[in-house]
Amino acid sequence: MKAYWQLTKAQLLLFARNKNTFIWSLFLPVFMMVALGTLLGDSGGQMQLTAAVADEDHSAVSSEMVKELKKTSGLSIKEVDASLGLRQVKAGDVQLLIRLKDGLGKRVAQVKAKERAGSAELIQIYVDQSNPAASQIGTQVIQQWLNEYNQKLVHFQPAVKAKKIHVQSRPLEYIDFLVPGILSLMIMSNNLNGVAATIASWRERGILRRMQGTPLRASTFIAGQITARILLNGLQALAVLLVAYFIYDVHVYGSWIGLIAFILLGTLTFMAIGFIIASLSRTPESAAPIAGLVSFPMIFVGGIFFPVRDLPGILQPLVKAIPIGYLTDALRGIMNEGAGILQLWVPAAVLSAWLIVSFAVAAWSFRWDVK
Amino acid sequence: MIRVHKLVKEYEGKRVVDSVSFNVDEGEVFGLLGPNGAGKTTTMEMMEGLRTPDSGSITIDGLDGIRQREQVKGIIGVQLQSTALFDHLKVREILQLYGSFYPRMQSLEALLTSFDLKEKESDLVKHLSGGQRQRLAIALAVVHDPKVIFLDEPTTGLDPKARRGLWDIILRLKQEGRTVFLSTHYMEEAEQLCDRVAIMDSGTIIDLNTPAGLIRQLASDSVVEFMMEDVDEKELRELEGIKEIRLGDGFEVCLLTDDLRMTLRRLIPLADEKGWTLQGLRTRTATLEDVFIERTGKRLRES
């Protein structure tokens, strides 16, 4: 226990005294966020949803509705027929299809003339659940718009008025999308690249071998590493989230416990992969490039800067196989949509599987010395 | 204290350590002397529990050095060749860290004082000089007050002053009653420090004795050295008392003799007669280096 605390303390001191730690793990993520947030955030950078609208009613009311929809901010509208629209949703070309069904105009006219009351489902919204962020936000935007439309239609006078405080319904911007991505990137690069380079170098320089000459057990050493890195990552994540909150008003809508749980899961998974790379590489000079080779493509296919859906179809199986996309999705789900752990069981399960397998391989391949 | 029996280690079919046996007594400084690549480090690392021998046995203080290696690690202290330490830890911090690996550690203050590191306790390891760094490496080897200490070439690369400082420390460890196992390729070091010396070459122990005992075994006890051009080996060989002639690079000539007086008495007139200039003529008594060259035909280190 004494050795565990001392090793954790020593590693934290090493982090604190190493300028690279600060540059790569604090300055860089914050810089990236500010740079991308400013560049892309101001240039109309609300999260743009593209919706297909199929007007099957062809009435004055329905074409009026299409016009209104086009004015809604955050939505760009394409007019199509229903079957093409559905195909586009499935292919991910548009995020949702709004179908204005036949009889809509007639119905509105009846309501206006007070001939009928009640409501009928004459508008259908098709979404792709595999793209939860877009489908949820899209549905919300349409529902809200429809709500206002209905209220106007019946000259609804609310008895009790609530002051609207924009929390959930603040339109999501690119920065909201970006921050969880940066957290994910940070967790991966700190742990995968950081562990691989550090451990390989300690092994090469004989630092590990010197420790092997003492009664210290490998498990104690690794436990110290894990604890120190979890603390470092927690601190970095907090720094990024604070900057995001104060500069860009980015909130964590979901539970902090869920967020911390996924940060932990990601840290452990990528650390284990880092340990494997450190064991595989014969020299510290080769550890960094191997780690780079593994992590660099993950930056592009992990949905960090742009949605995974935008990637060509040929890459999709790869995206589904590697852990980074799941971590990014989960962090984004919690932060942007307030998703609970139950909704995130898929990323949780995939990351856990990755963790268990990599940890087993890491433990099996761990070596104190070079030969 | 230590018993090593028929130790063998092979790498890629080559016997790096070939059936090495010796005993080390409690409280002695035991030296393992040999050139680079002789198998010294591999032998020590097997004794330290860092490598598993292919065959043979190691007993340290009654413990089986192979099967009970984890217990052995608790009673031995090691300083590895060119020990790398965490550069960004302070002296005090790294002593505490290594101390935490053992059930109990010596008083930190006592360690800092006795290794002359008190003034440097708050310095980062990377700012230490070579000598300070090496003192720290040995301090780390004794943080837990071990019975046996392994030092692998502790003074390699140090300047003479720092080397002497380290010798004092090693002699003090012996006075404290510890057993010290030391490898070196410095003759002088072995002569000054070691109670007994094993000479190792190409994976085997070729001789084991006290330093004085090893020198006594030499057929010749004195050495005449000088430099000359166009060496006439035949003429030199006929001088009285000559046992061996060694020619170095350049013009160095080294005559090993068991009768220094007669050799010199004949050498000078011979040189006058032939018109040789004997530059830098000097004589000395034989050292472990001469023993080593005689036994192996190799120099200990290229200098």
Automatic annotation (TrEMBL), chain A:
InterPro entries: ABC-2_transporter, ABC2_TM, ABC2_TM_bact-type. PROSITE patterns: ABC_TM2. It is found in: Membrane. The chain crosses the membrane at residues 21-40, 177-200, 221-247, 253-278, 290-308, 344-366. GO terms for molecular function: ABC-type transporter activity. It holds the Pfam family ABC2_membrane_3. Signal peptide: none annotated. Residues 139-369 form the ABC transmembrane type-2 domain. The keyword RNA-binding does not apply. It comes from the Bacteria. Keywords: Membrane, Transmembrane, Transmembrane helix. Gene3D superfamilies: abc type-2 transporter like domain. GO terms for cellular component: membrane. It is a multi-pass membrane protein. This is ABC transporter permease. It comes from Marinithermofilum abyssi. The lineage of its organism: Bacteria, Bacillati, Bacillota, Bacilli, Bacillales.
Automatic annotation (TrEMBL), chain B:
It is found in: Cell membrane. One of its GO terms (cellular component) is plasma membrane. GO terms for molecular function: ATP binding; ATP hydrolysis activity. Keywords: ATP-binding, Cell membrane, Membrane, Nucleotide-binding, Translocase, Transport. Its main location: membrane. SUPFAM superfamilies: P-loop containing nucleoside triphosphate hydrolases. Residues 2-227 form the ABC transporter domain. Belongs to the ABC transporter superfamily. This is ABC transporter ATP-binding protein.
